[in-house]
Design goal:
Oligomer: single chain
Number of strands: 7
Distance between the termini: 36 Å
CATH topology of the domain at 51-145: GMP Synthetase, Chain A, domain 3
Radius of gyration: 18 Å
Number of helices: 2
CATH architecture of the domain at 51-145: 2-Layer Sandwich
Order of helices and strands: EEEHEEHEE
Mean pLDDT: 89
Low-confidence stretches: none
Structural class: alpha/beta
Length: 146
């Protein structure tokens, strides 16, 4: 079954503000975002567009993992992840060239280790945000058993 959904995010910046605010009708709170690139490193207290972008990739990967793990009957106790992006900066352009994702999962049964390892690579193909990008992705998974 195929369904369609739309998402809307609104951004507002005014001349008397240093940063902008991002909001969505479906949420009660807005997120403050830097009005400059993180490449300038001006304010470490505010999320930059680049940080939000990497967080979007990471949370989309997690969502894909949860959905597929449920469908495959893999029971897990925890999921954590670190993502890092490499940025190439030139005079004419800047681009993200590589993204490293390091997911860590704690599963409940040791007989599901191989199944879980396979799941990590399958998630890449089911990750909505990653499927829209042309970037090299490297996944280094870790599994523990309780």
């Amino acid at each position: 079954m195929v369904t369609s959904q739309q998402y809307q995010v609104d951004l507002i910046w005014k001349e008397d503000q240093i940063n902008a605010k991002v909001s969505a009708v479906v949420f009660s709170n807005a997120i403050e975002v830097a009005s400059h690139s993180c490449l300038k490193n001006l304010n470490e207290d505010v999320w930059s567009a680049e940080h939000l972008f990497i967080a979007s990739i990471e949370s989309s990967y997690m969502t894909a993992f949860f959905r597929i793990a449920k469908n495959k009957g893999i029971k897990f106790k925890s999921f954590s992840c670190t993502a890092r992006a490499s940025v190439m900066i030139g005079d004419e352009f800047s681009e993200i060239t590589d993204i490293i994702i390091r997911p860590t999962v704690t599963i409940l049964e040791s007989n599901q280790i191989n199944k879980t390892l396979k799941l990590f690579s399958v998630c890449k193909d089911h990750c909505l945000v990653l499927n829209t990008l042309k970037v090299r992705l490297h996944i280094f998974p870790s599994i523990s058993v309780t």
